[in-house]
């Protein structure tokens, strides 16, 4: 019997491609309609909502004061503001400061809700989908909770820093939309892909899946980021994204282990 190998046989594609993404999307939509998953929507949404209220309550005034002081030192902003006032339109600073403050504080509460979904809701999602559709995919993960917390932490920090550092580029059209899509795609893909497989995949399997399906996970993150542009989606998107990545990741793991069985079969 030859040694166990995860190399892909000629007739077993390494990735399901767009078909796998579409299949995960359909399965996630069906799973989202289950009462248990509808109830799970409440946790990240309420935490994000409470976080947004607290941030606005405690940080709005000092943040807007600081932004107003900073804006007064920017020659470009002052020149544009003077021109707009001179032609009888409006003062740029009146609208720029509150918009910038909201652009800083609301994503912070959003990434908090996503991190909560990744660490606390994903186990509920995995228990739900694995019992119904992936019962044959055994759990071989190690230190799942620690890995999940660490992953959610560094992704949240990078997202927050990247969002703040690139915020001045929002003044250049259409960078506001493009940067928002990019950073949320980063957050969804980097956070959810690990949590989707950390309980079931061994460390070796996890490395293979993340390398092999890197593009697929990024496509899922991009889809979630585009949906995130619609404010009503903020209510259900943390849980729906968890379902989406769980279906995609567990299906990929299932196919990977089938390749292992094929390789272990006597020739």
From TrEMBL:
Pfam families with a match to the protein in the record: EI24
Membrane-spanning intervals of the chain: 36-58, 95-122, 143-164, 170-188, 209-228
Source domain of life: Bacteria
Major localization class: membrane
InterPro entries listed in its UniProt record: CysZ/EI24 (IPR059112)
Designated name of the protein: EI24 domain-containing protein
Membrane-topology descriptor: Multi-pass membrane protein
Record localization: Membrane
């Amino acid at each position: 019997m030859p040694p166990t190998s995860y190399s892909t046989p000629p007739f077993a594609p390494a990735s399901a491609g767009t078909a796998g993404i579409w299949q995960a999307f359909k399965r996630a939509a069906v799973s989202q309609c289950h009462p248990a998953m509808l109830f799970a929507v409440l946790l990240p949404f309420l935490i994000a909502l409470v976080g947004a209220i607290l941030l606005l309550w405690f940080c709005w005034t000092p943040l807007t004061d600081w932004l107003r002081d900073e804006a007064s030192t920017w020659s470009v902003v002052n020149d544009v503001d003077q021109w707009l006032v001179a032609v009888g339109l409006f003062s740029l600073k009146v609208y720029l400061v509150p918009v910038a403050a909201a652009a800083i504080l609301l994503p912070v509460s959003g990434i908090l809700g996503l991190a909560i979904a990744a660490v606390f809701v994903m186990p509920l999602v995995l228990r739900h989908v694995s019992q119904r559709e992936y019962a044959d995919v055994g759990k071989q993960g190690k230190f799942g909770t620690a890995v999940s917390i660490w992953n959610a932490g560094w992704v949240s920090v990078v997202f927050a820093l990247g969002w703040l550092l690139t915020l001045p580029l929002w003044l250049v059209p259409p960078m506001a939309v493009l940067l928002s899509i990019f950073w949320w795609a980063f957050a969804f893909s980097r956070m959810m892909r690990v949590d989707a497989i950390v309980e079931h995949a061994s460390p070796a399997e996890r490395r293979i899946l993340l390398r092999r399906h890197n593009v697929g996970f990024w496509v899922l993150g991009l889809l979630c980021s585009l949906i995130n542009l619609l404010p009503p989606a903020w209510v259900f998107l943390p849980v729906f994204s968890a379902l989406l990545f769980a279906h995609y990741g567990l299906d990929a793991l299932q196919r990977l282990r089938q390749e292992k069985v094929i390789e272990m079969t006597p020739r």
